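re: that chain from earlier
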Amino acid sequence: TGCPLHNLIPETNDLLFRNRLDDAGERLSLTNPFPEFTGRVCPAPCETACNLGLNDDAVTIHDNERAISDYLWEQGLEPLPAAAGDAPLVSIIGSGPAGLAAAWELARRGMRVCVYEKDDRPGGLLMYGIPNMKLPKWVVDRRIKLMEESGIQFECGVDATTQAEKIAAE
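^ sequence. v structure.
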């Protein structure tokens, strides 16, 4: 009940405990497409909800999530398969955490995705609202690069309010 993303923390932690990091990453990715972000910036309400904390120190779920993510990146995350040329095109306005998550999930489901961002680079709050000491920008850039390799397009410097008709027509 402590995780706003509804990550299945006991299952993920059990896989991590059994040193099955690939399986733990797969389990985590079912509910969290970007553990490299949340493992760095989430305030970890799950740790306060951890039953172990009743009698001992709670499990360091936040750190576990980051460790799993760091391991997966070290192993080399593969891009998603590119969408078919005739797959439906979905336009997403804004490339903050919600826009990126929607883009990733839609691309995972085989859609062509174009993300429109008013700023000069994708990432929204991840780039412009979280200090570098908390979330290094190379972590965000690395994910954006993987998304682009997966066929997700980013159109930066676009004010969607002035381009709404064009975007809708596409």
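The first helix runs from residue 9 to 17.
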